[in-house]
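re: that chain from earlier
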Amino acid sequence: MSAREQGITGMMKSDEVADSGEKSSPQSNNPNARIRKKIGSRLISRILPAAVRLWLKSQVDQVSDLSIQIEGCDRDILSGYIPGIAISARQAIYRGIHIKRLQLSAADIRINVGEVIRGKPLRLLKMFPIDGEATMTAADLNASLSSALLHGGLQDFWQQLLKNQHLPRLCKARYRCLTDSVRS
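^ sequence. v structure.
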């Protein structure tokens, strides 16, 4: 289990403790009181994954074992800040691309919740990195070859690679034995 997954699992366990129903004052030495104070309300963050799951399922042709975990207390989320999100899926098909296993995570997500409440569309307020891992089998790749999205992505990749001024020198240095044998 990765450190990130352990953090999410740890957060989930903390929620269970915080929601155990124990009454305690913030001044007590009860660790549950400290956890409850740190985490805050979790109603929105419990409902949000189901909404995201429905939206994601509407974006893909097929998906199995879709799991979504959202970090953050209601106050953070309602203010437009999502500290972290983790998504995993198996047997997904997105725009013709077949993926056996997918794991994505992102942190420090900022969205315009205030504007959404006033009827405006949801927007990202700042870019954020997404860490991910996808696994494809040979059968998945063969099934994906007719995908326009895969074709466009590969085309973009090759165009960017060919724009690299150092590519010919790097290839010659790396594959010198191949170019020397071709000349013979």
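The chain is about 50% helix and 25% strand.
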